[in-house]
Specification:
An eight-stranded mixed sheet has the order 1-2-3-4-5-6-8-7, with helices on both faces. The longest helix has 17 residues. The radius of gyration is 16 Å and the shape is globular. The chain is built from five helices and eight strands; from the N terminus they run E-E-H-H-H-E-E-E-H-E-H-E-E. The protein is of the alpha+beta class.
Length: 188
């Protein structure tokens, strides 16, 4: 069984240290604020309009940890003990199953955290953990998908050592436009 995991990412000269941890109900209100951003809403399939939506979404992520099929981390700025860091984004590992060679990585970044390397650093940490935790169960590769016109996500994939694999056809309603499939193998 995988207990909730906390991952840490060191600070860089240009960016603060990060903490990746399972979502808590304390993030429901900040989640609502983050989802007011039209750019984020453009690229995500879920919408968080109010605190009740945020609470439902967080509980859903907690249930997925228990079911071991989706591991979603809140990405926050590291703070001294006892202080909550600012919500910067989310990274998720989904589709993990014993004997399955592939799982998918997803992420989003809050508007105030974009362009600071948060997504690529968080994705890199998630990938390291995923291969450590699931390679013995058969995990060989991670896949990262994004719409073709999402150039920022393409840059995150490249910075996180994913190789471009192929263009995917649109699959409405959840993937309304063609996309890119990037792959990272355990040996990376």
């Amino acid at each position: 069984m995988i207990s909730p995991v906390v991952l840490r990412v060191a600070a860089t000269p240009a960016a603060p240290a990060l903490v990746l941890r399972p979502w808590s109900l304390a993030e429901a209100a900040p989640l609502v604020e983050v989802f007011r951003d039209a750019e984020l809403r453009r690229w995500t399939s879920h919408i968080v309009e109010n605190e009740a939506d945020g609470t439902r979404w967080v509980r859903s992520q907690q249930q997925s940890w228990s079911a071991r099929d989706r591991f979603n981390f809140a990405v926050v700025e590291e703070q001294p003990e006892g202080h909550r860091g600012s919500l910067l984004g989310s990274v998720v590992l989904k589709g993990v199953a014993p004997g399955e060679p592939a799982a998918e990585v997803g992420y989003w970044t809050a508007a105030h955290a974009r362009g600071k390397g948060v997504a690529s650093r968080a994705v890199e940490a998630l990938c390291g953990w995923a291969f450590d935790a699931f390679e013995a169960d058969g995990l060989e590769r991670l896949e990262l998908l994004h719409q073709v016109d999402n150039r920022a996500s393409c840059r995150v994939a490249q910075k996180s050592r994913f190789d471009f694999h192929r263009v995917l056809p649109a699959a409405p309603p959840s993937f309304p436009h063609p996309g890119h499939l990037h792959v990272r193998r355990a040996s990376h």
